Model the fold of this input.
Amino acid sequence: MPWHKRLWESGPYGWNQALTRPQVLVPFFVVAATLPPLLQYIENNSAWTGAEFWIRILTTCAMYACLAVSLNLVVGYAGLLNLGFIAFFAIGSYAYALVASDQLHQHLPLWSSLITVIAVTLGFALLVGIPSLRLRGDYLAIVTLAFGLIMRELTIDLDRPPVLAGHQFGPSDFNLTGGTAGIHAVDPLRLPSWMPLIHGAAFQSRTYYWIFLGFLAIIIFCLLRWRGSRVGRAWVAVREDELAARAMGVNTFKYRLLAFCTSAVMAGIVGMIDAAYTHNTFPDNFNVQETVLVFIMVVLGGLGSIPGAIVGATLVTILPFVLQQLVLYKYVVFSLVLIVLMIFRPQGLLGTVSIRPRATMGGTIELLTAESAIAASELPTVTDREAADLESASGAIVAMEPEP
Amino acid sequence: MDYFLQTFPQQLVNGLEAGSLYALIALGYTLVYGILEMLNFAHGDVFMVGGFLAAGVAGLFIHNGVAAVPAALVVTLMVAVAMGGSGLLGVGIERIAYRPLRNANRLAPLITAIGVSLLLESVVQVQISPAPVLVPSNELIPQSVLQVGNVATPFTGATLFVAAILLMVGLDLFVFRTRFGSAMRATAQDREAATFMGIDVDRVIVVTFLIGSALAGVGGVLYGLRFATVDFFMGYLLGIKAFTAAVIGGIGNLRGAVVGGLLLGVLESFGGGFISSQYQDAFAFLALIVVLLVRPQGLFGQPLTDRA
Done:
């Protein structure tokens, strides 16, 4: 069978595997990284003048791709509905803004601010994750939803000293978050001077495009390394059948918490880069609609698929720019897309999650068949004798079952 | 201490008033959760649509503060339209967005639910009004203040409380005293076994959504009359609080939802009154976290469903 036919036959799971090979990913990142100079070159040599505009859109795409891949870790891999996802992005941006602006008169260098951001987002992730991850998924969804909302209220309210039971905490000129106005004049990322290309580049957005792209490459590398590891397999096991995973000795709470916290920290770092890119951070960063937008990117691309998340992020970011009529109806259209997709093609473009398990077999079976679809073609054919051995083996197992 | 003793009854009344609204919406969450074991995120937005329907009906009959027909008739119409509209909306959501995914992975209906929630919000925002819409409450219901001792409450607030309690009693009677109610309880206990007993489970689910959503619709009317304004985002925070109330009372348990709602309202009112009005909304969230940590099955232990 020719390779393209075999690829087509392998279905979404096979496409996903094929697209996450280094032979595909490395050229993808090289091409993506050369886009800004390419656009600049086209602008310099033609009448077209959209280079800066499109580089900005590409930067937004790269940022959303980072977010979508991080959300995919928690929703796609681990099967946890984190509806406060964007809150961790906002917490990261606020944490960075606080240690790298005049708000608290702190201007920490890059690595210490990165560690601060990681510590703060991790702290909040543990605060939300520990009480809710022991319980069923629905509770996590509502707790994270409430968490995002409360964090938004807190950032709006913390521009003045908190007053509890008539007692004022902190001095009267206490202003932590800047209230509805947010924090402005946030420091740009101060990268070490030995870094090529990035340091002192002429265009702000181009620099940050590369930073987002670099971070995307890092998290994709991590996810691909984790996918086949014990951790990654534990996540999939917990997602597909929690009871079976527990029976196999997987500590479900531990792995859920790990996925939840990792994804939150990733979102926090993206928030930090975004705060440095846009030079400010607002309470609107906590907007829940944004969470749903990132969800749509992930579901559109396919739950559990890294290339899918990138494709979804690019489509959802670029479409409103291409179809200007869409801007007003952005959320209407995309929420409709989300519903229709979930009903008619829940696996999205490249998804690997068995959303609709067969009634009799349960979820794990379908995943296994999808996974073995390509592997099966490489297996040696089973001889009659081996089959007979198998039969007798299974017969022995059946015989071992106690009589009712 | 003096301040505490003087304001305690007032805070209690305020809390019960807010809590009755939470309870009314919590019933919708708990009904659906009890039967389908799914979190209907769109429920808060069904409540919001009910409020907008009521505002629309009121706007039809009242121009510039002059009512064309008796106020009582307008209020009746508002309630009828909001109940009918919200109820049908709830049934429609179930039919289109949840039923095809009933046997799917648990994640799938949750994702469609959040999609439906965003859809309702954004449609109302884009098509009707991004700004709050006024409800001519002045022309519809007496704005007098009831005063007992040093406790005062607006007539609208008292109406809200009484109406909510009456509806909840009615629902309780329906679920625990009628034949259809026992079919609902049977479905909640074990859907498959209920099918074997000849119960039309699909019909039970449709009626459950109808009742829950209609109650949310009435909640929207009462909210509009009480606060004289509705906005596209109002179902969001209220929905989360109502769900918190349902969890506190033990999700799936009807009476628990009522107690949880009233309790949450009072708790919030005390927190806002005695600790910090600035962080009033945070108390509901704190309550949710504490309940999940200490007693995740809620106050009334055994939920309607025993399946874990």
Remarks:
- DSSP finds twelve helices and six strands in chain B.
- Confidence is low (pLDDT under 50) at residues 303-308 of chain B.
